Amino acid sequence: MLRNSARLTDADGNPVTWLGANYWSRTGGPLMWRSYDPQVVEEELLALRDHGMNVTRSFYYWPDFMPTPHTVDEEKCAHFADFLDRHRALGMSTIPTFIVGHMSGENWDPSWRGGRDLYTDVWMVARQAWFAGEMVRRFKDHPAVAGWLVSNEMPIYGEATRDRESVSSWAQIVVDAVRAAGGTQPVSLGDGAWGRENTGHENGFSVRHSAEICDFLGPHVYRMEDDPVRQHHAAAWVCELTGTFGRPVVLEEFGVSSDFVSGDKAARYYRQVLHNTLLAGATGWIAWNNTDYDDLRHQPPYSHHAFEMHFGLVDRHGRPKPQLREFKEFTEVLERVGFGHTSRPDSDTALVVSSYLDTPYPFTREEDGDHVYSAARQAWVAGRLADLAPAVTRESDGLADDARLYLVPSAKQLLSPTWYALEDRARAGATVYVSYCPGAHDEQRGPWYAHLDELFGVRHQLEYGLVDPIEDDEVVLTFTRAFGSLPEGAKLTFRAAGTPDSRVFLPVEPDGAEVLAVDGRGRPALLLRRVGEGATVLCTYPLEHMAAVTPRVNPEDTAVLYDALGAYAGVRRPVAVADPRVAVDRLVHEDGRTFVWLVSQAVEELTVKPAVGNGTLHDLDGAAVDAVTLPAYGVRVLELRTA
């Protein structure tokens, strides 16, 4: 199954990799253009360039650049022209952002807005389009302009709305204005890719529509999690979801405030985010942000959002923080593997994301989208830890038909035709795994499966209006026969969790299915039905949902189960590591070389011996490698040489 590796390219078709930081100078923050200091700007840009960065994301602070509805401030434009020149002199470029708007915990309006709606007021939309066009006309020919962004997190500034038609029309009009003014560089919205397709919540923005009108998609990810492994994969999961629309994915904002994390743990976070998002399809990275702002503590937004002062890659004195050194090491790895000419290989594993994430069906609840999101993300993380490199197939787009293993985690709802389509995939030779969940609330609580009994070769024993609670604090699955990589007698243990509606199991009796594993009370817990050339596998427990709502649970035994499913389904894994604390994935260079990433989720140093199907592993200097020692949460990149 295809995994997105789309890239931005320059005018000659050469791949472009943006590596950089969102930029406000320490002398002014959002007000920097009022007290523009060219020497400080040059010093700040030099610190970024010397750590491997080639781009900034910059901002036209709207109240300053557009003081009246029909004028732009010439002095501010002159400052921006100098800003561009200084980028050019250092071999760097920048991506200007038009409607700003929102920034770091505060919204700023031009004095003339007068409360007009940014999306639906025709005059107000025209003023935004005019301003974007005016900035493009002035600066489009400058070689330091790498691209354009319409806004900064417009769902916050323009406010969330359910009026998707108006928001999409606004986006189309402003993007068209950029093109009409002669902007040939890549353009995107700067909205954070926060549409329903990625979140399960309606805010008026559509990632699907953005992909139709934009040249790239730019997630902004600042997650607060309760599990370190999910935290390390949070941005990667969003990049994987965003990549399903086929556009280049640039991680446009991510980062940490030093008020919320120590220096060594900030470096760890950057390391994990950078490498995991690369393996999830990101092809550009723009950190938030370049510097700290202690000297602006009396100025909004820093006066009331103190933590916003300390997202910098350098401190107030220009000294690099640990995360900037981590970024530099990342850029060196990209250079050594020739990242611009690599792509992700196809995957044999498809993670099915229910359309109830992104589609508002009649008489359904928005919480169903939350459930799909959390269970799918946990399954994706478990799949990565099992070295399956799962790709996402959205039910909304129709299921992929070329996977060997389909994962449908903790499912309550799929469309009726989709259940039959999954059976067709099994009949054609795939293994289809489904784990049961009735949802996390009590409205129409139960399996919305089109033909549950026939699909899985069982007879369910549900009682109307009731659920079957999980009685024990742990769910133990004992295998009654060998399956995949698991021998007969193997035991997998899962922490029971969920709401009174979701911490439940599905009582079934086999009716043609083989029982693979039983629970601690002897009931069927994992069943296999042979279908044509393939099989369906039913888990009667919501394993992924239980893990998704449990703090500090990963790695957990769902990864072990997925490893067994992968072995049974014949998923190809040229390199794998038995320890689920280490995830393995690959990039393939267009010249035929294959590079292997090992990413550790262990809290301590760990030595592993990768299993190689065909060939040998070598470090990037060419030395043969047998065992690999990874520091805590460490990353190692190797080359796979096949016979």
Query: Low-confidence parts lasting 5 or more residues at pLDDT below 50?
Result: none
CATH superfamily of the largest domain: Glycosidases
Q: Strand fraction band?
A: 15-25%
Distance between the termini: 25 Å
CATH class of the largest domain: Alpha Beta
Calculate Rg over CA atoms. Answer: 26 Å
By CATH, the topology of the largest domain is TIM Barrel
Helix content: 25-40%
CATH architecture of the largest domain: Alpha-Beta Barrel
The strand line-up of the biggest sheet is: 14-13-15-16-25-24-23-19-20
What is the strand tally?
34
Oligomeric state = single chain
Structural class: alpha/beta
Globally, the shape reads: globular
Major sheet attributes: 9 strands, mixed
How many discrete domains?
3
Q: Supply the number of helical segments.
A: 16
Write structural notes for this entry.
With 643 residues, the protein is of the alpha/beta class. The protein folds into 3 domains: 335 residues, TIM Barrel (Alpha-Beta Barrel); 221 residues, Rossmann fold; 67 residues, Immunoglobulin-like, CATH 2.60.40. It contains 16 helices and 34 strands. The chain is globular, with a radius of gyration of 26 Å. 55% of the residues are buried.
